[in-house]
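Preliminary data (for renewal application), zinc ion complex.
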Amino acid sequence: MAYKKIEQYDEDITNKLMENYRSSIELLGEDANREGLLKTPERVAKAMQYITAGYNMDAREVLNSAKFHESYSEMVIVKDIELYSLCEHHMLPFFGKAHIAYIPNGWITGLSKIARVVDCFARRLQVQERMTHQILDAIQETLNPQGVAVVIEAKHLCMMMRGVQKQNSVTTTSAFSGQFEKNETRSEFLKLITADLY
Ligand SMILES: Nc1nc2c(ncn2[C@@H]2O[C@H](COP(=O)(O)OP(=O)(O)OP(=O)(O)O)[C@@H](O)[C@H]2O)c(=O)[nH]1
Ligand SMILES: [Zn+2]
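Predicted structure:
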């Protein structure tokens, strides 16, 4: 199976995480035995496994699972794919949108698979730059298209609720391969992801 079902949690890992989160709650000055917190270690253990489930997902397998022969050779753009990830430095969320395009070279993939590839790499401890490249590489290697473009815009909670405390900064990262290395193609992509066509 390409990805972990939401309800499936490894019992051993869940139990070990629960012990750790119980200790963390106490170390942070709380009473882990008070009513509202009794089930919290288990909830957090499951939530953390869910938001890091990307380690159990294989992006190439996801893309190959719906790969179709097709002669369409214009740009395919899936934009505004929401993403939630965890920064690997503070384990705090960063979240935003991914805009992805590819120009097929005989093969297309199911549109939902593009969004699943985003989840696959977002649901890990990440830096935005690496995630951007991982998404591009998975699509490039699996579909062998004429080019791939990935733009990610995200807000990092580690820059908002602590540290430098900037509430409005947005980080944009991008990666381009093949035809998208040409200015003309890249400009068309950037124009289309900012256009309000829907
Ligand atoms: N390049 C990059 N940096 C990130 C990302 N997520 C978080 N960071 C940064 O990682 C850096 C870690 O820096 P450190 O100085 O080791 O950590 P820190 O003392 O907590 O830093 P401050 O956040 O500035 O308080 C910070 O500048 C974060 O803003 C990311 O996706 N990409
Ligand atoms: Zn951080």
